[in-house]
Amino acid sequence: MAKFTQNDVWTDTLRLMRAHWAALVAIAGALVFLPTLLVNHFFPMGDPPTGTDLQAYVQFVLDYYRQNALPVVLQSFVVMAGSATMLRLVFAQGGTVGGALLFAIALLPVYSILVVLVNLAVGAGLMLLIVPGLYLWGRLLPAGPAMVAEERRNPIDALKRGWALSEGHGWLIIALYLLVMIPAAILMLVVSQLTGIGFILAAGQQLGTLLGMILLCAMQALVTTLLTMLAAAIYRALAPKKP
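RE: above sequence
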C-alpha cells in the first residue's frame, strides 16, 4: 500500500502549481475561464425564486439546464478538455501545452464518459445518506488522473484503476479534497459578492455586473486549476513510482 499523507500531497499540489504556473494560466484562461464567462454572460441563470421552497428552487435549476442544454454541455466538454490538458502537462515529462491539448482532445470522448460515470456513482451515493457518496468520491477520484497518466482508453478500466489505487485511503482523500474545495468555494463566493457590490457602486449596474461576473469566472478557473493539481498530486502519491 502506498504511503499517503495529506501534508505531502498538499505540498506537492503547491509545487505543481508553481512549476507549471504559466502553462496552467494559459490553459485555464482559454479552456475554463473563457467558456464559463461566455455561458454566464449570454445564457444567464437569472435570479432564483425567493423563499425557502426547495422544490421551487430545484425546478428553477432544472428549467435553466433544460432550456440551455446545448451551451452548458459544450462548456462542460471544453472545461473537461482543460482539466485533461492540465493533467497531461503534469504527467508528460517535457511535453508542450500544444501536445497536451491534442492529447486531451483525442482522449475527451472516453474521459467525458469516465467523468459522467464517476458523477453518477457519487451522486447515487450522496442520495443514500451522503456518507456512501463521499466514500465513493474519495475512492474514484484518482480515476481521471490515472486515465491521463497511464493513457487508459477504457473508462471502466480507469474506474477500476482508481479504485485499486485508493484502497485504504478513501476517507483521507475525500477529507483532503473537501478541506481544499469548501474553503475555496466559500472564499470565491464571499469575494465575488463583496467586489460585485463594489463594482456596481463604482461603475453602475450593467458594467459593474459584468466586472463582477468576470472576477467570479476567473476565480472559478483558479479553483478548477487548484483542484485539478490536487487530483494530480493525489495520484502521484498513490501510484507506483517509475524507476
